[in-house]
# Entry
Amino acid sequence: MNNTDVSNLLTTIADLMDIKGENFFKIRAYRLAAQAIHDSPEDISILVEEHRLKDLAGIGDAIAKKITEFVKTGRLTYFERLSEEIPLQILSLLQIPGLGPKKVATLFRVLNIDTIESLKQACIEGKLRDIDGFGEITERNILRGIQLLERTSGRSLLYHAYNNGQHYLQYIRECSKVIQADLAGSLRRMKETIGDIDIIVASEDPDTIMDHFINYPKIKQILVQGKTKTSVLLIDSIQVDLRVVPIQSYGAALQYFTGSKEHNVTVRGLAVRQGFKLNEYGLFEKNTDKFLSGRTEQDIYNNLGLQFIPPEIRENRGEIEAAKTKTLPRLLEEKDVKGDLHIHSTYSDGSNSISDMVEACAKRGYEYVGITDHSQSLKIARGLDGEAIQAKKEEIKRLNETAPLHVFCGTECDIKSDGTLDYPNDVLGLFDYVGIGIHTGFNMTKDEATERIIQGMKHPSVTFLAHPTCRMIGHREGFDLDMDQIFETAVDANTALEINSFPDRLDLNDIQVKRGKELGVRFIIGTDAHAKEHLEYMKFGVATARRGWLEKEDVINTVDLTTIEEFFKKGRKENG
Ligand code: DGT
Ligand code: CA
Ligand code: CA
# Structure
């Protein structure tokens, strides 16, 4: 019994209570407890043994008692009773984007639906539309949600795979028989979702490496165990493939298993046309099988007459041609970013105060930071009214007297359904800069949504458009927009487009970023941080920018403080 087991049980209980329609606060207590145990560095059995459960934030008497019972006996009476009332399999329905516990409960009560398969069938047969609170639109949305789930299921968010992959890699590198070890596959390419994690190790002693590999404490199951390839499933349900190769083939293996497949196919074709043979062991002369290179990726690319191609752009989207003519972009790096311009504080729905967020930004070495809380209509996110804006401005002014970096007072102002902004012009004038975004009203046609966004972007006070398509990976498709029209407006109106770094947004995505750059768009990369811990998401925004071929010059928040101040001011003057 470990922390994850207990945390999972508490989450399951919360989900079941949710479907049962229990009190909101009671349910939230279970979710907070689950989180606290998941995050605790201390082993749950020790916490129970030493009666220290209640030291964790959010754990009270009732939950502590239940955890103790579960850890000591391996069973929990309360949970067993709950799962008699509500079958556990019903929880799978909660994975469907847009389907909440209330609807799940109704579906179970009225139609006895308890699996995704039976729900899909019922939607197809039109059985949901007559239920109270449902309708044809709900039916269609649920079907779309199921399709979205089918497309993304089995894949993890980059953020999730990245943390697991880095942790595992560090563990592997602790083994003294490792000469070199790196991530490969889609994770090294920093794709937005990851099927499985690939790790390549160079070593002359594969047996020792494999022994070490399978002793990693976070393994749930060993899937395949071989001499040079082993696959395991982690507790977090991600598969990891490890391959061990001799050092002279390390670069070749890394190149081969980093992919993408499409990139590899084209590179191999190029090799063949030059009289070579390329595989995971190295680059060879085709006729004589003479080994040419394989120790490093750099050697291989150079032997083929190519520049070294950064992993993030190995997608066969023109990088091989560019590498041939030595015209690859000099990709943006995380250290080029001088500030984060999309941050929330306790003024709206963030969990940390402005000064806490600013302090955390200073630790990251930023030169400036912008606090962009929500606007007045967004009540669920505690959007700011005029009075709150004044208070916030005052606080920032005081902070700027002592802060080690400059703090801007910004906003993330809603674009209303008719394309107007959620603040009148005089209020917008109070901010140092204005980000705009959509958070409600997603049922629109392509033309309507495009027009709504373009209207917003053309407003003279606007600096940037936040998370342009509003997609949520695995949860919401995002607006179907006329992207070229958005890009053209961005250029004409001098409005930057955001690459939002939040793990389930990454919006714009890599392909959109690349197209936008070709049309002359300028970008900002923001984290949309709602807590200090979210500031680290910047690396996923930067990765998305790199996958979209961006260079430092394409990204506005790489310039120094004076230049960005000019940019904010100039934007306003030029436009109105
Ligand atoms: P994923 O795991 O679905 O997110 O995507 P990848 O790209 O990590 O794919 P994966 O794990 O199946 O394989 C890792 C890399 O190995 C892949 O990017 C390219 C290479 N690879 C795998 N299978 C083949 C193949 O049949 N042909 C070629 N040329 N390369 C392959
Ligand atoms: Ca993979
Ligand atoms: Ca793999």
